[in-house]
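For anyone still unconvinced, we reproduce a single protein record, the chain in one-letter code, the fold tokenised, and leave readers to judge:
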Amino acid sequence: MVFAGNVNSYTIKAPIAVDPLEEFLFAAGQDNRIRLWSLRSGGQPLTPDPSLSTTEPRNRYLFQYRFESSVRTMQISEDGAGINLWATCGSELFKYSLGQRASVV
């Protein structure tokens, strides 16, 4: 399976994270962006539209945001409110809500 589209020359250890259901892969690139792929299909990531780029990291447009420097770590956590992606950049910690886990009937 191929996960195309990430920007990484392999000169740094870019962080990755996988959601609790092992359906999605998150990867940080050297372009200071985070991308998302389906672990079921691979292929191209959900890519940011450059015209929608934002300077506000704590809004809902995680995949359009370009961090000020490299994202150094990422982790997925789950709590009563849902699933979260945590990312560090410089001395800042960012939390992104990924929503609720779908319940299986």
Summary: The mean pLDDT is 77. The first strand starts at residue 16 and ends at 18.
